[in-house]
Amino acid sequence: MNIPIALNVNGKAVQASVDPRMLLVQLLREQLHLTGTHVGCDTAHCGACTVHLNGRAVKACSMLALQAQGGSVTTIEGLAGGGGKDGTDLHPMQTAFRECHGLQCGFCTPGMVMASVQLLKDNPNASEQQIREGLEGNICRCTGYHNIVRAIQSCQRAAATA
Ligand code: FES
Ligand code: FES
Q1: Phi first, then psi: what are they for 59, rounded to 5°?
Q2: Which residues contact 157 (CB under 8 A, 6 or more apart)?
Q3: Residue 81 has what pLDDT?
C-alpha cells in the first residue's frame, strides 16, 4: 500500500505516493526524474547518492523516502543558482570542480560536490588532511582525489576573497 508524502525538492513543493520500502534515492531518480543523484553501490559506501536533507548531507540510498516527509531536499540539480562570477549560474563548488579538473568520468561528481559543499560548510578552513578525511565516505575510481582536493581548496580561496 502506497503512502502519500509531501516534501520540498530543490525549492519546489512535491507530493508523491510511495511504497513504504522506497528509498529516497529511488524517489528522486525514478519518480522525480532527478537522475543527477547517482547510485553506485546501494550499500551506503560510495557516496554517489549524496544529497542535502534539511541542510545536511545524507546518502539517499541509506534512508527511506518516507523519512524525508515534510523535509527539504537539495540535489545536484538544485545546487546551481550561486551567481557564479564566471558568468555561469553554477555553485562555486561546481565552478571549482570544473576549473580544477576535479572529475574524469563524472559518475561520483554529483555526490562528491554535495559532500564537498557540506564539508566546507562545517569547516570553512579545513586543512588538506581534513578535506581528505571529510571525503572518506565518497569514492572516486578515476581521479586519485588529487584534483578534487585542489577544487575544494580553490573554493576555499574563492570564498576567502569574496
Ligand atoms: Fe548510496 Fe553508494 S549509492 S552510498
Ligand atoms: Fe569517475 Fe570519480 S570521476 S568515479
Answers
A1: -90, 115
A2: none
A3: 79
Determine if ligand 1 sits within 6 Å of the CB of residue 52: no
Nearest protein Cα to ligand 2, atom 1: 105
Q: What is the DSSP letter of 65?
A: G
83 SS3 class: coil
Instruction: Give the model's pLDDT for residue 47.
Output: 98
Write down the H helix ranges in the chain.
24-26, 92-99, 109-122, 128-134, 146-161
pTM equals 0.95
DSSP state of 67: G
What is the structure's pLDDT at 88? 76
Q: What span, in angstroms and rounded, lies between the C-alpha atoms of 105 and 33?
A: 21
Contact (Cβ atoms closer than 8 angstroms) between residue 129 and residue 91: no
CB of 48 within 6 A of ligand 1: the answer is yes
What 8-state DSSP symbol labels residue 30? I
Write out residues in the chain with pLDDT < 70, as ranges: 82-87
Q: Which of 90, 106, 58 is nearest to 155 (CA)?
A: 90
Q: How far is the CA of 152 from the centre of ligand 1 (A)?
A: 21
Residues 126/151, Cβ–Cβ less than 8 Å = no
Residue 147 C-alpha cell reads as: 584534483
Residue 72 CA to residue 9 CA, distance in Å, equals 6
